[in-house]
TrEMBL record:
Protein name: Geranylgeranyl reductase family protein
Superkingdom of this protein's organism: Bacteria
Organism in which the protein naturally occurs: Wenyingzhuangia heitensis
All residue ranges annotated as the Digeranylgeranylglycerophospholipid reductase catalytic domain in the record: 183-231
InterPro entries referenced in this protein's UniProt entry, alphabetically: FAD/NAD-bd_sf, Geranylgeranyl_Rdtase_fam, Geranylgeranyl_reductase, GGR_cat
């Protein structure tokens, strides 16, 4: 049986990031991936600058288009534009992006085993044994980076799923030249293209990634909303369309991120941003943090678990908690949303852009202030 210091299950941005930093710290690391790379991942592929600027290598070869300007719409009435010197959002196709991240980790010595699905987690005294479709593997530490449907979490002892999962659709749409020319000029978000959620149109090299996400609750009509959104965008001719649906975890687990030497990161832990559903940057960041915790702890497993938990509680978690409250307020009532956008639309867009840029954290006192101001505003509507 092959033995490693760390086995990372999943080769998405969280797993690839963890593997990269573990190998850099000198640990013998393997990535186990059930698919063959490069593989398609349902995702808008909008990579915000707070993630990009912290990448340990250049990713420009896999960036389709980058936007220094973002357009936020709410119906026909509101349109806010923010602009920055650096790309606010870099658009990637996830097959190429994830593959590059894995290749960079392989250059540092990470072993990749593809077509290798982990099917069972067995806890031994000093190691964790993983049964896979390619035989058994043992490791001192296991990182579950297997995404939103994390079977690893279930197999490792998280019997209840305490995250909130929301449905999202992603259509890869090839349109005629006139529509592509018109719609590829901007990266747009359409708040209220869907009740309690938003739509997006992200231009890629030769097609548009168009999607919708319901942020705070499930809605069976999501496919209808997406069809309406495509109409709303004024697309006259669809040359080809690939329709995909998946889920996004928009609240983190409340029962810990480490059990029996299995560490959860990325979507498996529930680290996507609750307000925007943007998950790539925290996936990559949590991969870096878990690698740091494990590398610093050596064989001291309790220390690794405590360090990782502490570091998540002091970095990612406060951001997610504020964002959760904002999401509830923002998507919970159309009246509140309208009041926010009418009175503070440009300011709200600027603050969100600063957060995307990694220049600001979510303002800690924002809830109290917003509630006060909104009360006044709603009374006057
Ligand atoms: C429709 C939609 C649009 C989105 N758009 C954006 C966006 O524009 N920007 C953004 O930042 N975020 C977006 N997200 C969120 C983003 O896709 C996720 O947050 C991100 O992919 C999480 O990365 P991850 O590494 O945790 O998991 P994933 O990227 O899901 O990777 C998990 C990997 O684990 C593998 N795996 C699973 N089970 C096993 C197993 N048992 N054994 C071995 N391997 C296994 C999978 O094959 C996969 O490769 C979107 C999500 C959806 C659904």
């Amino acid at each position: 049986m092959s033995t490693f210091d760390v086995a990372v299950v999943g080769s998405g941005p969280s797993g690839a990031s963890a593997a990269f930093h573990l190998a850099k710290a000198g640990l013998k690391t393997v990535i186990l991936e059930k698919e063959t790379l490069p593989r398609y991942k349902v995702c808008g592929g909008g990579f915000v600058y707070r993630g990009r600027k912290n990448m340990p290598f250049d990713i420009s070869e896999v960036v389709d288009i980058e936007f220094n300007k973002v357009d936020i719409y709410m119906g026909d009435k509101f349109h806010f534009v923010t602009e920055r010197e650096n790309p606010i959002i870099s658009l990637v196709m996830r097959d190429a992006f994830d593959n590059l991240m894995v290749k960079k980790s392989q250059e540092l010595g990470v072993e990749l085993i593809e077509d290798c699905k982990v099917t069972k987690v067995v806890n031994k005294k000093d190691v964790v044994e993983l049964e896979t479709t390619k035989g058994a593997i043992s490791a001192t530490y296991v990182i579950a980076a297997d995404g939103v449907y994390s079977q690893m979490a279930k197999m490792a002892g998280w019997t209840n799923d305490t995250r909130t999962l929301i449905p999202a659709l992603e259509y890869e749409v090839e349109v005629n030249d006139a529509d592509f020319k018109r719609l590829s000029k901007e990266i747009r978000f359409d708040i209220d293209a869907i009740p309690a959620g938003y739509g997006w149109c992200f231009p890629k090299k030769n097609h548009l990634s168009i999607g919708v996400g319901v942020i705070i609750k499930d809605d069976k009509k999501i496919k209808e909303y997406c069809a309406e959104y495509i109409k709303f965008l004024g697309i006259e001719e669809i040359i080809s369309i690939e329709k995909h649906g998946y889920q996004i975890p928009v609240t983190p687990r409340t029962d810990g991120y480490v059990k029996n030497n299995v560490f959860l990161i990325g979507d498996a832990a529930g680290f996507a941003d609750p307000l925007t559903a943007e998950g790539i940057s925290n996936a990559i960041y949590s991969g870096k943090l878990v690698a740091k915790a494990i590398a610093e702890a050596g064989d001291d497993k309790e220390k690794a678990a405590k360090t990782y938990t502490d570091i998540i509680e002091s970095t990612i978690m406060p951001e997610l908690l504020t964002s959760m409250k904002l999401a509830k307020l923002f998507y919970g009532s159309k009246l509140v949303r309208k009041a926010i956008m009418k009175k503070y639309g440009q300011r709200f867009s600027e603050v969100m852009t600063d957060i995307f840029m990694g220049e600001k954290l979510y303002p800690k006192d924002i809830m109290g202030k917003l509630k006060e101001k909104l009360k006044e505003k709603i009374i006057s509507i």
